[in-house]
Write a sequence for this structure.
DNA sequence: CGGGGTTGTCAAGTTGGTTGACATGTCATA
DNA sequence: TATGACATGTCAACCAACTTGACAACCCCG
């Protein structure tokens, strides 16, 4: 046997293509014009297969969000790796994520450049129903911190709290940016550094 | 529906990957060490699937040959397109094919650099059992000639004969090269030009 | 209100890869 | 030369996944 069977790789490919199609449609004509049928047609598959693979249209949105999240977490991982100071690592990661948030066509489309032109259904995923996003991102960031073997004056549970807070700040800054990425990241770093100092002193 | 269904594209992909695996094994360790099992393993598929897709090991060799041939014919098509003189077109095509014959790792492996180190089974395909190759290549070349709308003093049947002869000369020069590609191609052009002159006069 | 388009779901049908088995053939080696 | 190891070629039974057709429910437009 091989590491990945042909079947499995095809399955992943199908998933990706379906999501690609949906994402393309979102970026071109908005979420409301995305159709399960059109996705099926574009990919060359039956509508049923789209449902089998992605579930309901609502779940499709969540899949899209999680996939985009994975791209963000990749950047986070890259930026944190090799740093010696936790705060530096976090700041670098935040900056990377915020910059990607500006570049990501999907994110920009969801958040909407013109006020009032949102797709409420999709936007909800990034905001009120972002539980899974926060959990996933939090877990990934924590893993990076563990990998980094930083010297931290915090208990494990306290690390969780701190990480979740940082993630929430970043998510907020992506959905409602108020300063350039570098500045926003620096601000987060400032708070974090103070908190750590407090924990130590 | 789409132009290509997902299923079809996957099928083609499987075929390609199987052939890639076989070709890689040939180039690394020779035809005799190519195993249906190894191909299956490398691609992540069952041995039976390899048989379903490619047939016997012998047929696998033919598939490989035909796929490589397709690459040659692509070059031929490129070189002939846009030429105004038939002979120039043919010479350009021959030169391209001969050069590719020198570069093609598969061809070089089959033909064998060291005398006596051939894989007889594979080699047969390029020589004694090259019927399908000649037919396919001939048809492709003839199509290029028709597309070119050249002014020819030959009947349709005579064109067939001429084309087949050229193809055979090229095939021979690939399996047993005696001069550099440009020279060999020029030689073919010389004969062809004479023949056409004879037909006109 | 009625038609058209979409979603979500189902069951039946088809394609095609998987698995295990077996006969056959070949080669190296004891 | 006998034999074990390995490869090929084929089968049948199995199972996973895509397809097809159909249907109820919903929404929006005219």
């Amino acid at each position: 046997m091989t590491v990945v069977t042909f079947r499995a790789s095809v399955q992943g490919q199908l998933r990706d293509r379906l999501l690609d199609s949906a994402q393309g449609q979102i970026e071109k004509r908005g979420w409301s014009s995305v159709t399960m049928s059109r996705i099926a047609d574009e990919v060359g598959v039956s509508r049923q297969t789209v449902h089998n693979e992605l579930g309901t249209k609502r779940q499709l949105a969540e899949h899209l969000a999680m996939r985009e999240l994975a791209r963000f977490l990749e950047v986070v991982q890259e930026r944190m790796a090799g740093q010696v100071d936790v705060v530096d690592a976090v700041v670098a990661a935040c900056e990377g994520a915020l910059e990607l948030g500006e570049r990501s066509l999907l994110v920009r489309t969801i958040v909407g450049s013109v006020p009032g032109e949102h797709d409420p259904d999709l936007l909800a995923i990034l905001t009120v129903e972002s539980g899974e996003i926060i959990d996933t991102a939090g877990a990934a960031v924590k893993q990076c911190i563990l990998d980094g073997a930083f010297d931290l004056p915090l208990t494990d549970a306290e690390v969780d709290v701190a990480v979740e807070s940082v993630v929430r700040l970043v998510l907020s800054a992506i959905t409602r940016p108020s300063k350039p990425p570098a500045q926003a990241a620096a601000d987060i770093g400032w708070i974090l550094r103070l908190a750590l100092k407090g924990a130590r002193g």
User: Anything to note?
Assistant: Residues 1-55 of chain B form a domain with the Arc Repressor Mutant, subunit A fold (CATH 1.10.10). Chain B touches chain A through 19 residues (CB under 8 Å). Residues 5-7, 35-37, 47-48, 51, 55-57 of chain B lie near DNA strand D (CB under 10 Å from a C1').
